[in-house]
Design brief:
Strand order of the largest sheet of chain A: 8-7-6-9-20
Mean pLDDT of chain A: 94
Largest sheet of chain B: none
Number of helices of chain B: 4
Shape of chain A: globular
Helix content of chain B: 55-70%
Number of domains of chain A: 4
Number of helices of chain A: 23
Structural class of chain A: alpha/beta
Low-confidence stretches of chain B: none
CATH architecture of chain B: Up-down Bundle
Largest interface: A-B, 37 and 27 residues
Bound molecules: flavin-adenine dinucleotide, iron/sulfur cluster
Oligomer: heterodimer
Distance between the termini of chain A: 87 Å
CATH topology of the largest domain in chain A: FAD/NAD(P)-binding domain
CATH topology of chain B: Ferritin
Chain lengths: 602, 148
């Protein structure tokens, strides 16, 4: 045995006088590797609280907790992840799935505390020294655990589209829909943004389960127009879907359509049937557009006798007479409307209130009245020569086409405007064989029309001339033609931060001759069915009305909704207005029941 | 009207007349909403009058050199007659066109006088009217020309 071996036990003793590595004297001299999976960092400003980190965590180490600073922020759940380091196994899956790429890991690994219960923290909210750490695990550039691209919607080619008024979008097949449904992280942020608060994650889940009947039932809870909305909804939900932060948002609208397409109309009754017990109350509704019919559906479900008065020969309002069939086929709109009438809603067609039946008689004969008469009067440009016979209204052309009448537009047309009506008038004109130029006073990016529609419009060969301000309509040599004088505009920023304004450049004027000019610059309401006194009493301003809670007006029995009573003027808002009014009318008709209920709740 | 005070008195009176005009139309319109808007317009004119009174006493300076954006909206719109059932669009067109006329008036007068204090005041008044025109034209751009 060597001397060293003999003495070594004694040398160990010298260690006994060194201070130990303990919570009081930790080993802090060795930094974590640059990509070490240490404590979490969350950039809470970019995080939207979707909770996909919580869902993917296999150890239940993440809880989503409310953080006041983000409460009520648009497109944000107001929650942020809270980590439990008693459970975390540092796998980094939460970082890989994070939809906003706001979650990452620092290379910090020492956190010293005597209290074993203290290792919980809300990253980015609770003050921790590693929040600004530059090193640690990050998701690799371009790596996506969730596919960033949506499944493309099969569509007719632009050339094919122009041959007829057949529907342009063809719908997903089952495999495509399931793949797209798989991209949903079920956060529910869309639910808060949808005006009707549709239960999006659950109906998308029903696609994963292949249970389309359940999907349909879920949709009808808040929206009796799913076939319609599955095609033409303005889909605010998609604008907040967090999957869209790094990639494309889940195609919520197309998934809704897929569910409806899977269920045959003849099965609706069986799937959606609910017993209806009559209340003996009678409610009148003016207008069979989406607002009126949504109110009718939910009121009828509550057991009230509902009669809808509609001036036209068929229902659907602007969805029928405005939105062309290549975007919303009549049969699909009928699928929605037929179910509404099948539960006992009566629609009296060709009955114009103010002419065939007086408004006052509705007030007398019904327990409540809901009005959703929309915006049907085209706005005028107020420029010289506007009354020329070849200046046509976009709404009129669309109504003509919807009713199989020839609008007589000719072969070369100019459309004025940048909203939905302008795009539809232009695309319809293309289908009627005309060469189409759209004149719009601002930039294409300022157009209120749906981005996809603008794109499709261009694909179909419409020429958009942005920053073009019409100044005068002039007679052409031939009575069947008309000239328009327009000037180029320069965009000038608003010093107050509003949207940039177009300024006419008087030295850059153009004059062009067309077979007709289609004006589509907006529309307002027609309130002729209400006397001036009633309009005054209801506090209409500029033909619009801002209702109180539950869509109630200042008149006891009268509720309103739809385009003429909201700012958004789209189908889903009208549908929600109708549903909301139905709840309001229910409360109004059963005040005792609701007072008792509220007492019970308090 | 040759002196600065005379011109200012005239301009002040014009603002009062404009306020009276809107109040008068407000009495005749049929809806409460329209009445309120017209009374707001009248208030706006009274505010202009106050500014000019302050110019007269020397408490406020006109700024003829200031660049004011001209949206040129009213320049190409047909004239609107006042009536009991004018719309918001009508009311704005009337207001824009009145401000435009006032702007043209002061501007034309300024071209006819030699350089000096009077010209300075006239150009300053023209700029004030240009600001008022912009106020109504911006409102028209925002609220009426929504889909356009
Ligand atoms: C061309 C065009 C394209 C559009 N595209 C889209 C789109 O892609 N997505 C989207 O979400 N929205 C779109 N919209 C808007 C959508 O159509 C409307 O928001 C929706 O229809 C409004 O519903 P509503 O119930 O308020 O009124 P409306 O749909 O206008 O229905 C009102 C009904 O009341 C009836 N009526 C009116 N007065 C009387 C009376 N005195 N007596 C009896 N009946 C009366 C009318 O005949 C009509 O049927 C579009 C609109 C147009 C015009
Ligand atoms: S569709 Fe988007 S927003 Fe809605 S639940 Fe799914 S992931 Fe969340």
């Amino acid at each position: 045995m060597s001397l060293k071996d003999l003495l070594s036990p004694f040398f160990v003793w010298q260690r006994a006088f060194e201070k130990p590595y303990t919570t009081l004297r930790p080993t802090l001299d060795r930094p974590g590797a640059p990509a070490y999976r240490g404590f979490h960092i969350n950039i809470t400003e970019t995080c939207v609280g979707c909770g996909s980190c919580q869902t993917i965590c296999q150890n239940n180490a993440i809880d989503m907790v409310a953080v006041e600073a983000y409460a009520g922020r648009a497109g944000d759940s107001g929650l942020r992840p809270r980590f439990d380091y008693g459970r975390c196994c540092w796998c980094g899956l939460c970082v890989d799935i994070c939809t906003a790429a706001s979650l990452r890991m620092s290379n910090e690994y020492a956190w010293i505390s005597d209290d074993p219960d203290s290792f919980h923290f809300t990253a980015g909210v609770d003050d921790k020294p590693w929040q600004d750490n530059e090193l640690g695990y990050r998701r690799a550039e371009g790596y996506h655990l969730n596919p960033p691209k949506r499944i493309e919607m099969p569509m007719l080619s632009a050339q094919e589209s122009l041959k007829s008024f057949a529907e342009v979008t063809l719908g997903y097949n089952e495999e495509q829909a399931k793949k797209e449904a798989d991209r949903c992280v079920e956060c529910g942020i869309c639910v808060a943004t949808c005006p009707a608060h549709m239960d999006v994650p659950d109906y998308i889940h029903s696609i994963r389960d292949g249970d389309y009947e359940k999907g349909l039932q879920l949709m009808y809870r808040t929206n009796p127009f799913p076939a319609t909305c599955g095609r033409i909804c303005t889909r605010r939900c998609e604008s907040v879907c967090p999957v869209g932060i790094l990639g494309e948002p889940v195609a919520i609208r197309w998934l809704k359509r897929f569910i409806v397409d899977q269920v045959d109309k003849k099965d609706y009754q069986r799937i959606l049937e609910k017993p209806i017990a009559s209340t003996g109350f009678k409610v009148a509704i003016i207008g069979a557009g989406p607002g009126g019919l949504s109110a009718a559906y939910y009121l009828r479900q509550q057991g009230h006798a509902v009669t809808v008065y509609e001036a036209q020969a068929t229902g659907g309002g602007m969805l029928r007479y405005g939105v062309p069939s290549y975007r919303l086929p009549d049969a699909e709109l009928d699928k929605d409307i037929d179910h509404i009438t099948s539960i006992g809603v009566e629609i009296k067609y060709n009955s114009r209130i103010g002419k065939d039946v007086m408004f006052e008689s509705l007030l007398e004969n019904y327990d409540a009245v809901f009005m959703s008469t929309g915006l049907s009067v085209p706005s005028s440009m107020r420029i010289n020569g506007e009354n020329h016979a070849r200046v046509l209204s976009g709404l009129q052309i669309l109504a003509d086409v919807a009713s199989d009448r020839d609008p007589g537009i000719g072969k070369k047309v100019a459309v004025i405007g940048g909203g939905n009506v302008a795009m539809d008038a232009a695309r319809v004109s293309r289908r009627l064989g005309a060469e189409v130029t759209i004149l719009y006073r601002r930039r294409i990016s300022d157009m209120p029309a749906d981005e996809e529609e603008i794109h499709e419009c261009q694909q179909e060969g419409c020429t958009i001339v942005p920053q073009a301000i019409p100044v005068e309509i002039i007679d052409a040599d031939n009575k069947q033609k008309v000239c328009i004088k327009w000037g180029e505009a320069k965009m000038v920023d608003d010093p107050k931060g509003g949207r940039a304004r177009p300024v006419l450049q008087e030295d850059k004027m153009h004059t062009e001759t067309y077979d007709c000019i289609i004006s589509a610059i907006g529309q307002s309401s027609n309130l002729d069915y209400l006397s001036k006194e009633l309009q005054e009493q209801l506090a209409f301003e500029w033909g619009k009305l801002t209702p109180a809670e539950y869509q109630h007006t200042s008149m006891k029995k009268v509720f309103v909704g739809g385009d003429f009573a909201n700012r958004t003027a789209d189908a889903i808002s009208a549908i929600e207005d109708g549903h909301h009014a139905a709840r309001g009318i229910n409360r109004f008709l059963n005040p005792d029941f609701y007072t008792a209920l509220e007492k019970q709740e308090n | 009207m040759n002196t600065v005070d005379e011109i200012l008195d005239y301009a002040i009176e014009q603002e009062q007349l404009a306020a009276d005009f809107y109040e008068d139309v407000a009495q005749r319109v049929e809806t409460a909403g329209m009445k309120k808007i017209l009374l707001d317009f009248a208030e706006e004119e009274k505010r202009h009058k106050k500014i000019l009174l302050a110019v007269k006493t020397g408490e406020h300076e006109l700024t003829p050199e200031q660049e004011i954006l001209d949206l040129k909206i009213s320049d190409y719109l047909v004239e609107v007659k006042t009536s009991e059932n004018i719309s918001y669009q009508d009311a704005l067109i009337i207001a824009m066109q009145r401000e435009r006329a006032a702007y043209n008036l002061y501007n034309d007068m300024a071209q006819k006088v030699p350089d000096g204090k009077l010209k300075h005041i006239l150009l300053g008044l023209a700029k004030e009217e240009a600001k008022h025109k912009l106020f109504f034209e911006a409102e028209y751009d925002e609220r009426v020309l929504t889909d356009n």
